[in-house]
Write a structure and sequence with these properties.
Elements: H1 2-36, E1 50-52, E2 57-58, E3 65-66, H2 70-83, E4 93-95, E5 101-103, E6 112-117, E7 123-128, H3 131-138, E8 140-142
Antiparallel strand pairs: 1-8, 2-3, 4-5, 6-7
Length: 146
């Protein structure tokens, strides 16, 4: 009977681990986008220091949610700032041969889908369009300088 419990427990963790893997892939993609487009981050956004106040990282060893480390938090802030960038600085309007005006948004002005672990082992998902909205959802709070 104890073997069945162990097997059942492992099966119950599979969806959580699968979701953790997917969330990790999304974070890694965000890091890639961050590195590729750091020049598009709004001025001053990365000079602030943030702290993670929610358990939003699923530990790969234990499968349990934990608060992000300092480095993970700063990486999340950088990624979120880049992905929610709404600056028009440096964007140019081109007029095509048929008279249509076109702007390459360079990856800006999009919405971002975020996920965080819920207490019941599922994931909460939200689509955000601003850094502030994303930071609030993920529990990232700015440290105040005294």
């Amino acid at each position: 009977m104890s073997n069945k419990r162990k097997e059942g427990g492992r099966r119950g963790r599979r969806p959580v681990r699968a979701i953790a893997v997917v969330a990790t892939v999304f974070l890694l993609l965000g890091v890639v986008f961050t590195q590729a487009s750091m020049q598009h981050t709004p001025p001053g956004q990365l000079k602030k220091t943030y702290v993670g106040t929610r358990e939003i990282v699923v530990d790969q060893e234990t499968g349990r949610a934990r608060k992000p480390t300092y480095e993970e938090t700063q990486e999340l802030v950088a990624t979120l700032a880049t992905l929610t960038n709404r600056s028009s600085e440096g964007l140019t309007v081109e007029t095509r041969g048929d008279g249509v005006k076109q702007v390459d948004l360079q990856g800006r002005f999009g919405s971002v889908t975020l996920a965080r672990p819920a207490g019941d082992g599922t994931m909460e998902v939200r689509c955000v369009t601003s850094f502030e909205e994303g930071a609030a959802f993920l529990g990232l709070e700015e440290l105040t300088q005294q």
